[in-house]
Design brief:
about 270 residues, two-stranded antiparallel sheet, alpha/beta
Length: about 270
């Protein structure tokens, strides 16, 4: 973990906003502000997926570098508060995660929950919303939003067969070609809404893409494939021509409201354009 006197809830990797492409990484970091210490956990827990998405920061930085697109990365561990959850989601602040009890999160007074929302979660989403709005203005069209995540090879005893998965809700403009182009490699096993369902109310894609009618996709890469620099570079380089090709499709840069399998979509959510 990295610690500093001034804790930043997000990092901007700047790029050409006129490309109409925004990269986001909700779980890039495992860092905590000094005042939270280690949340009562041993250091080894911060080497696990429960603290962050292993390899995602490196992939996102390299993908931003190669595409020239800007990126927004959350600066805090999801054990503090999970930016890829809605504010009313019961897993927003985890008290138990994959067998690990988080002592500092139980009990969770309402005032402390609100403090974490105000100091970390909302500034991150405000930054994502501002970047999306800036890219829309610079490109004079709705931007494509690509979210980068990673997943564990095994979860609760189940061996996951995929090398990568693409998550989506009802808008498949970016997700479908992303799945097809990845799966064109005969050596890759690609999941369609695996290892999770892409319909999650209030998550980052729901909040900034679905509500606005913007094309988007969330890619999950198996963490052991990107745990070191060479693996992260390989995956970023694999994704560059695919993302560029999708970003050139004319239907990507149109506002289209597909709705959500999670229920009615609000007209606007905080942190969105």
């Amino acid at each position: 973990m990295t610690r500093s006197a001034v804790f930043a809830p997000f990092e901007i990797v700047d790029g050409d906003r006129g490309l109409g492409l925004v990269l986001v990484a909700d779980h890039a970091r495992r860092d905590l502000p000094d005042e939270y210490g280690d949340l009562g956990l041993p250091a080894s827990e911060f080497d696990r997926h429960i603290a962050y998405d292993i390899g995602v920061e490196a992939v996102t930085r390299r993908l931003a570098e190669l595409t020239g697109a800007p990126a927004v990365m959350a600066g805090f561990s999801r054990l503090l508060i999970d930016p890829n959850r809605g504010e009313d989601d019961p897993t927003l602040v985890r008290q138990l995660y994959d067998g690990t009890v988080v002592p500092a999160n139980y009990p969770m007074p309402e005032a402390e929950r609100e403090r974490r929302l105000e100091q970390f979660y909302r500034p991150y989403h405000d930054a994502v919303g501002a970047m999306v709005a800036s890219a829309a203005a610079a490109s004079a069209s709705p931007p494509l939003i690509v979210s980068v995540h990673s997943f564990t090879p095994v979860m609760q005893g189940f061996v996951r067969p995929w090398h990568a998965g693409v998550l989506w809700d009802l808008d498949d403009r970016a997700a479908r070609p992303l799945i097809e182009m990845l799966a064109a490699d005969p050596l890759l096993v690609v999941g369609d809404n695996e290892p999770y369902d892409g319909a999650l109310r209030g998550d980052t894609m729901h909040r900034h893409a679905i509500v606005n009618g913007f094309a988007h996709a969330l890619i999950e890469i198996r963490q052991d494939l990107i745990a070191d620099e060479s693996g992260a570079d390989e995956w970023a380089e694999r994704l560059v021509p695919i993302v560029d090709a999708i970003n050139r499709r004319p239907d990507i840069h149109e506002v289209r409201h597909y709705g959500s399998r999670t229920g009615p979509v609000p007209a606007k959510m905080g942190g969105s354009p």
